[in-house]
Amino acid sequence: MKSLSALAQNYIDRFETALETLPGQSSRSISELRKAGLEKFAVQDFPNKRVEEWRFTNLSSMTKDVANEDGAGVSALTPSLFETDYEIVFIDGLFSEEQSKLDGLPNGLSISSFVDALENGAVFSLNSEEERSLIALNTAFMQDGFCIHVGEKTKIDGIVGIKFKNSGAIKNGAHLRNRITLDTGAALTLIELHEGDGSYFSNPVSHISIGEGARLDHYKLQNESVSAYHLALTDVEVQKQGIYKNFSFSVGGKISRNELKTVILGSDAESHLDGAYLMRGDQHCDTTTLTEHKVPKNISNQTYKGVLDDKAHGVFQGKIHIAPDAQQVAGDQLSKALLLSDYAAVDCKPELEIYADDVKCSHGATSGELDDDALFYLQARGIPELEARKILIEAFLGDVLLSIDNEKVREYFSTRSAHWLKQS
User: Is the pLDDT of residue 179 over 80?
Assistant: First the structure.
């Protein structure tokens, strides 16, 4: 049997003790599910650079940073955090009823915590063919999360907010298990907001099901502590005429990874994955996407832009997979990075895996510095260099931010971008 990393062994050693405090222990099926997750994780270990999908992201520093988290717990969200119409709040990985805002939910919208869902008989499973070790680890240690259900033909006005605040007080990390289900013809706008203090490990896993003709606009702000590790996995299934739009905005974390897998299962369906990441210092941000077209006549696109300063490192790995029967499919993919320092770097790996012949697909990746001619042009008109640089960076990010359909969210992310630039 292969030897495990120190951090993986640390989690395995903690499991029996942690089990006593985790929800669902009265359920034999949940206990068996957790143990199956741990067994799978014990075989797989944490991902390392020998795994192709992880060759640009090194987690070795987690061993010393989060193996023995220690810090004061957090008690409240930042007051200025984006306000939404309905909110479910998690503090150090646990649902906070006091800070959540769930009164007066409209008919057809159900929001509950993972623990409440377990008590009401919800079934959670572990795919026996699942090869992603972080999902197995999440299954073993999942302590809370959210379940959202939107009923048939229910279109929710306003925005549902999912807010997380973590700290070094979470000894085993924050392993949230989330589920979103939109029935036929439903519509929902959702935003996740992640923040924190100190050194900690956040490992959220989300499963999303979009029914026929349903639409989900899914936004995410990753503003974790600059000492934190945020490794998020989201799996999405889109049925006929369904629409999934995702925009992730990342400014936090020591090491962050946003892994998105969408599977298009019906004709005339759409998947749109967009985002921006702004990193400085020694921050590392990894965006890994996979869109699978299983049937004919649907579309997908992926557009990500990054701004990297100091010794920051960005990663984009995107794949579009088109099955043999998936004719008349359109898929586009684009990654662009702006390097503000000689020491900043980005690794890009765009891929098209096509087994059908009647398709229209494109992919591309570019990286570079600010345009000297444009910078000179602005300065020649009396604009100071620092301000000219900000203007060019804002222009670089402008079109991807314009892809955000919700005006309130677009303005909020634009404000966060401007705040980041002021700190440059």
Answer: yes
Q: Are 63 and 255 in contact (CB under 8 A)?
A: no
CA pair distance 304, 249, nearest whole angstrom: 10
What pTM, to 2 d.p., does this model score? 0.95
Count of other CB atoms within 10 angstroms of residue 145: 27
Judge whether 365 lies within some domain.
Answer: no
- Residue 112: which residues within 8 A CB-CB, separation 6 or more? 120, 146, 147
Partners of residue 210 on adjacent β-strands: 182, 238
Identify whether residues 251 and 377 lie together within a single domain.
no
- In this prediction, residues 368-397 reach a mean pLDDT of 95
176 domain residue, yes or no: yes
Please state the three-class secondary structure of 221-273 as a single string.
Answer: EEECCCCCEEEEEEEEEECCCCEEEEEEEECCCCEEEEEEEEEECCCCCEEEE
Query: Do 246 and 111 lie in a common domain?
Result: yes
**Residue 339 resides in a domain:** no
Instruction: Tell me: pLDDT of 128 over 50.
Output: no
pLDDT by residue (tens digit) across 26-73? 778 888 889 999 999 999 999 998 899 999 999 999 877 665 555 555
Q: Which domain holds residue 412?
A: 370-424
Q: Same structural domain for residues 68 and 213?
A: yes
- Least reliable range by pLDDT among 12-16, 271-275, 334-338: 12-16
Residues 85 and 226 both lie in one domain: yes
Residue 98 lies in a domain: yes
